[in-house]
Amino acid sequence: MVLRADLLAGPAERVAPLLLGAVLRHDEVAVEVTEVEAYAGPRDPASHAFRGPTPRNEVMFGPPGHLYLYFSYGMHWAANVVCGPDGTAGGCLVRSGRVVDGLEIARERRHGAPERDLARGPGRLTQALGLSREHRGTDLFAGGPVRLEEGEEVPAADVARGPRVGVSQAADVPWRFWVAGSRYVSAYKRSPRAPAAL
DNA sequence: CACTAGATGCTCT
DNA sequence: GAGCATCTAGTGA
Fold this sequence. Notes:
Helix content is 12%, strand content 26%. With 198 residues, the protein is of the alpha+beta class. A hairpin with an 8-residue loop joins strand 4 (76-82) and strand 5 (91-101). The longest helix has 8 residues, at 12-19. The structure holds a DNA duplex (13 and 13 nucleotides).
């Protein structure tokens, strides 16, 4: 697909599978996206935007194609591509990827982790890319150092889906999408706070 | 390999 | 102060 900001204006759960295969870049380090999760704002109790705008999540209420970053579990940043029309909150969490450029830098930032684990998991991915607070709200299509680039398209037949990792609300909604068979995908873990599986 | 416990600090109530 | 869209190091098989 031709990756453009206006293609991200659809509902998050429809945009998410289209992001697989795209490339998220920060200067020399680039990651091919292998796993994403959709968060549908006001329609989705698991979304940070479910209860309306706050200083943290206001980026998600703006135009699509911007970067929503949040800090999690005391040590990790997680990166989302804002989806949905301007004024409606939504986003896709970039959970995992394969480093396709800047391998040496990524390895340093990840303190010599195995290649497979350089960007497998949302916290590891932002660490490999060197993304944190100063990149909040970046327009990924403005030609800056942090941007979303076209990659090799993943055919719909190769997209697997299932419930999202670690969410206590809407724990059975299958809005996690990944490249079927890829080794660069994180393990599924149900939230211990979620009600028992169906 | 699978599984578990604990660290850690920001955000909102 | 509770709750987290997590990670790592540790154990045991």
